[in-house]
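User: Second chain of the day. Same drill as before.
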Amino acid sequence: MPILLIIMSIACIFGIGGSSVIARMLGEQNTRGARTCVTFCAYGMAAAGMLVLAAGLWLLTPIAHLAGADAENIGYTCDYLKWVFLGAPFIILANGLVHIFRSAGLIREATAGVVLGNGVNIVLDWLFIVQMKLGTAGAAAATSIGFACATVYYLVVMLRRAGKNELFTFSPKALCITPAMALDVMKIGIPGALITVMLSVSNIVLNNHIGIYGSNAVASYGIAYKVDMFPVMLSVGLSQGIAPLIGYCYGAKQEARLDKVMRISMLNGILPGAAFVLMFLGLSEFFTAIFLRDSMLIAQSALFLRILCLSAPMLGIINMVTAYEQALGKAGSSLLITMLRNVILFIPGVILLSRFAGLNGAIAAQPVVEAVLSVICVMMYRANRHAAVQQACPAASSSDASGVVITT
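Assistant: Same format as last time:
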């Protein structure tokens, strides 16, 4: 799974980075530049996928050992990784093109590709694992084939629109990319990719601390974490969906509209988060009992869920400010938020809180860190907006003959 997440993070380099550049260019009415960026990202994802495929199959066993496989499970791990690497081009293209489609305004097509890929994956999981008894190889094959179906769908949509939509073309002639554009894509995309990588790192650290208290604690946290992913992914989806509009408004210099978009988006992130908090606080045992049978595990997992869910309203601020920084091309700020959230604040938070409050303290590290980070994000956003206003309306003071200060 960590290897699969790393492959998917490569897609974010071109997907998140490219969508930011494309949205800003469309706001500036630079359709030709946006088409060049779309073509560059598509070819870049395909080339990266082929490189991962070749390197992965060549170094299959060493990578399996690096991921933590031992003599007992090396065979299963290699079976899984082989099919993941074979599907690498499709995994990268499917996960990257969905961002490109959103930036181009093709929301319905982007959603259809996600539903198609995951739907095929679910059906093939049942067929390969339950019916054909293919085990881990079947699970990985279902994943890769699902992404392949999504990729084919996206490419067909691009092909059908190539003749009538100026953004899509398969012609290599459109690859007249400038170093500045490529750098712009990379400087936004790499921090976006690091979000996935750092999320894996932070989860490894937390799991190691929870593992001290036994396998039941790990299982209870795993269920609570997965249930809590509903408000998390809702917030992520909102921020990713709104990012192209932020970039467009910024490129078109529509400052008032940009402020309105951010206010409404943050509100629409905070309110559902608060609703999830109330629901999980009142019905935590109901949700965890769906996945567990042991009464002690249900109670422990419900407690973890009540702790984890407290951060849900803060996600509406953190994820929206992250999307804002990415959309405006502020790579440093976006990377800073990611590092604060998953490394700089989180890892010390887990260590200190687990030392003073035990297992519950380790679980509480997430809402504590995200409460602190939400305040930091608000400060960053207000500072950026103040700087933008100063840049748009510079105050130059001068004095007339009578000594009256005139501000322009």
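The mean pLDDT is 85.

User: Great, on to the next one.
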